[in-house]
Automatic annotation (TrEMBL):
Membrane disposition: Multi-pass membrane protein
Cellular component aspect of the GO annotation: plasma membrane
Compartment annotation: Cell membrane
GO molecular function per UniProt: homoserine transmembrane transporter activity
Protein name: Threonine/homoserine/homoserine lactone efflux protein
Pfam families, A to Z: LysE
Keyword terms of this UniProt record: Cell membrane, Membrane, Transmembrane, Transmembrane helix
Length: 202
């Protein structure tokens, strides 16, 4: 992966991670209920699940690319269209709001990890999303395993940092999302539309 491609993937990953989704919502909820330190278990589970889904998508895509390079072009076009559609959906979606937590009972770290992992690994939208996104950055000439290590590590670090920030600031973020959440969704939706339209043309 070239530095320019990695940098573009880094920026795209940051935009994805900043968009509140099921894992961010769960991290915020557990941050509000159990504190940001215990929410680390939730976040680690969610990141592990997301990287597992990334690997499943990438190596499945890699098998198709080895059959014919035309598959990669086709996947880029279909994936770009899906990202545009996802951006339009996000643009129109209501803001995500997390309810304030009361006195929550202590929960084991393993249970929080499992909750985060299953939220990420069983979300079919994640499978569709990464299947659409990853072909935009894959090179048929480079090692698939090497590309997965770079992209997986990059996404994991960014996702972990963003989810931790949301969890640590759960009480402060809730009123902010309620106040500007719709505008935030429109900005992120516009970014996805732009990515979906531009990346297949590279």
């Amino acid at each position: 992966m070239s530095f320019e491609t990695w940098l573009l993937f880094l920026l795209t990953s940051a935009g994805i991670a900043l968009t509140p989704g099921p894992n961010v919502l769960l991290a915020m909820t557990h941050g509000a209920l159990h504190g940001n330190r215990r929410a680390l278990w939730t976040i680690m589970g969610g990141v592990t699940g997301l990287v597992a889904v990334m690997g499943l998508c990438m190596f499945g895509i890699g098998a198709l690319v080895r059959t014919s390079a035309l598959w990669l072009t086709g996947l880029k076009l279909v994936g770009g269209a899906y990202l545009v559609w996802l951006g339009i959906r996000l643009w129109a979606s209501p803001p995500i709001v997390v309810a304030a937590g009361g006195g929550a009972a202590a929960v084991r770290g393993a249970a929080l990890f499992r909750s985060g992992f299953l939220t990420a690994a069983t979300n079919p939208k994640g499978l569709l999303f990464f299947s659409a996104l990853l072909p935009q950055f894959l090179s048929a000439e480079r090692s698939l395993a090497g590309q997965f290590l770079v992209m997986g590590a990059t996404y994991a670090v960014i996702e972990f940092a963003v989810e931790y920030l949301y969890a640590a600031a759960a009480h402060r973020v809730r009123p902010w999302l309620a106040r500007v959440g719709r505008r935030f969704n429109r900005v992120c939706g516009g970014i996805f539309v732009a990515i979906g339209a531009a990346l297949p043309l590279r």
